[in-house]
Amino acid sequence: MSAPGVHLASGKVREIFALDGERLSLVASDRISTFDVVLPTPIPDKGRVLTGLSAFWFSRTAEIVPNHFLGLGADGRTMTCIRLEMLPIECVVRGYLAGSGWRDYLETGSICGHALPDGLLQSARLPEPIFTPATKAAEGHDLNISEREAEELCGSERYAAAKAASLELYRFASAHAEARGIIVADTKFELGTGPDGSVVLGDEALTPDSSRFWPADGYEPGHAQPSFDKQFVRDWCERTGWDKAPPGPELPADVVAGTRARYVEAFERLTEVSFADYVSSPEVVL
């Protein structure tokens, strides 16, 4: 895996290169992480799915909020992007009661200060989507925080702009996905500020790594849902008894194949482009 420019950093999934003072190259690997630990077994083509889906959404949501996307590489893994100063929070939008939101609700009846009706079931659709910020942890797990804490971290104007953009992005993507048989239960955005100080969408958007995707045809509240995202790997990891500390377990071949199939199916449903066509000509998603 190579890209022009100076290597700046390695994330859980991406390699980040500086092209010049204003542009970055982000290269998505096939690494997969669960519980904030990168597992030793890659998922073939995962990086292409993340890059292709992100480019698909970036090209369709720029009127909602500007984004950092400048272009796609011929490898289907590489994006050229504008450099941003990233906000110090994860911008999480939830439309359904799942994951850490479900755990918080069971303990407190609320999520990040949003009081919710009594008696909601696991995976229930919320009365309306809610914005639930989280900290960006350098190590360990991100933690849900209150909106007041998030506003103090970001500044009131940037926080208000990030919240409004995140909710509108979620509404747009949810409607698009539901028409294609996928429920976006929740998703995480990362926003920053561009050279002119405006709030800009960065990182990735609405992928199986950053979102909880459920098949709509089998949706039934009251229990965890099958998914098109990395929940399949998380569930397998939970069953092994792994203590969630590094190193992570090697994935068996059937879990690798099942995960790849779920990622590719989400890509094809959402973009209405065959994955093979994307691999041969990435710009088909734009």
Descriptive notes:
Strands 8, 9, 12, 13, 14, 15 and 16 form a seven-stranded antiparallel β-sheet that branches. Helix content is 32%, strand content 26%. It starts with 5 loop residues before the first strand and ends in a 6-residue tail after the last helix. With 286 residues, the chain is an alpha+beta fold.
Q: Could you give a quick summary of the protein structure above?
A:
This protein has helices spanning 46-61, 99-108, 147-154, 156-178, 231-240, 253-271, 275-280, and strands at 6-10, 14-18, 23-28, 33-34, 37-38, 69-72, 78-82, 85-86, 89-96, 110-111, 114-115, 125-131, 134-135, 182-193, 199-202, 211-215.
Shape: globular
Number of strands: 16
Rg, Å, rounded: 18 Å
Tally the helices.
Answer: 7
Portion in helices: 25-40%
Indicate the multimeric state.
Answer: single chain
Unreliable spans are none
H and E order: EEEEEHEEEEHEEEEHHEEEHHH
Indicate the proportion of strand residues: 25-35%
Whole-number mean pLDDT: 94
What is the terminal separation in angstroms?
Answer: 23 Å
| Major sheet size, sense and barrel closure | 7 strands, antiparallel
Features:
seven-stranded antiparallel sheet, alpha+beta, 286 residues
Topology:
Layout: E1 6-10, E2 14-18, E3 23-28, E4 33-34, E5 37-38, H1 46-61, E6 69-72, E7 78-82, E8 85-86, E9 89-96, H2 99-108, E10 110-111, E11 114-115, E12 125-131, E13 134-135, H3 147-154, H4 156-178, E14 182-193, E15 199-202, E16 211-215, H5 231-240, H6 253-271, H7 275-280
Antiparallel strand pairs: 1-2, 2-3, 3-7, 4-5, 6-7, 8-14, 9-12, 9-13, 9-14, 10-11, 14-15, 14-16
Helix pairs in contact: 1-6, 3-4
